[in-house]
Amino acid sequence: MFKRIGKLFMREVSTILKDRDVFTLIIIVPIAYAFIYASLYFYKTEERVPVAVVDVDRSEFSQTFIRRMNANKLLDVVTVTGDLKEAKNLMSSMTVQGIIYIPHDAETDLKMKKSVTVTAYLNTTRFLVSNDINKAVNDVAFSFSDETRKIFLQSSGYNSREAETLIEPVRNDIRPLFNTNETYGDYLLPGLLALILHQTLLIGLSECVAREREFGTIREMKVTSGGNAFAAITGKALFYFLMFTAYSLFFFAVTFPVFKINLIGSVPLLIFITSLLILSAIFLSIFVSSFFKRKFVAMIIIAFTSYPLFFISGYVFPSYALPVPLQFLSKLFAITPYLSAYNRLTQMGAGFENIKSEVFSMTIITTVLFALAWWRVKALFKKEVSSYPDKSGRKERGS
Predict the structure, then answer these.
(1) pTM for the whole thing?
(2) Residue 399 confidence (pLDDT)
(3) How distant is the alpha carbon of residue 232 from its chain centre?
(4) Which residues make Cβ contacts (< 8 Å) with residue 360, sequence separation at least 6?
(5) Is 77 within 8 Å of 66 (Cβ atoms)?
(6) Nearest C-alpha neighbor of 206 from the set 282, 145, 273
(7) Domains, the chain, ranges and CATH?
(8) What are phi and psi of 177, to 5 degrees?
């Protein structure tokens, strides 16, 4: 059997080298996509978001407020105007992403110990920039609020330390345990690399499997494997397993350090769960794509159906907030428990005890998918070989 598996392995290598489409998807795309997509988030977070300030007050307070906003690394005050309509036009043209409105008599009201409302108009069509602007404006506003209250308390007879205590009698001590810089890039990049690995494998292998039917080489695969479906699957899968395991090691050893992605958990455990993901993707691709007789159709179907798996996995949007049917569907694919375990392992330093339920789920899913792939290949050997002409041009009867 090992000799047959070796022949099937070399046959797969030869097929990939001859087929430019498959060669591009399997050999070039995983590495290229990893660096192209990851480079978009190289700086991890947005800085210097352009905003406009509508300063109706034109006072020392408003000028100080503007200077502090401009000093904040999240904001870039590109325009100061007294016309709200002008500022709204700038937002409509996407020249600025937010408008900060400082009302008339703001300084006078502060001196009279009255509250002042500084309004932020946010472009909420973009999630990140609206959060960044809101956070920065709140930080500046709170700094003024604390200073004003401190001055008031000191004028009432309290010393500096007592005034600071009364300003904030209950202090928040917020400490991010993971993703300490709280950046979107640190959150998204690990999952993005896993998605690239998973999807390129599914699409590339699906083309190869459908190619067997399109070019009538199922009979050849049957002869090479001796009619053994297990040997056929193993020989075909071995190349992809080795190749994508090598890609995953490259991601962990090179891409993670280049883009400063945390990897604080056990590397052997990470490699183990990634191996399970690769195997499950191989068996899933063999099973599904074996129903197609054209590799182009298989590629299109797999491409359009595999990408949504990332969105229902719970990585981008929490699983508990999904419709119940989607929650159930997501549990049928290994990418869901993998991303859960993978994120905690790489970013939180989780151990086997913390992810054993995910490992168990992945093992069950992979075993079921192998059984389905074996059944499908065996069925093709029995039922479809007779429809392919042999070298003499005659159809073979039976198999």
Answers:
(1) 0.81
(2) 35
(3) 33
(4) none
(5) yes
(6) 282
(7) 2-41+183-387 (no CATH), 49-167 (3.40.1710.10)
(8) -80, -35
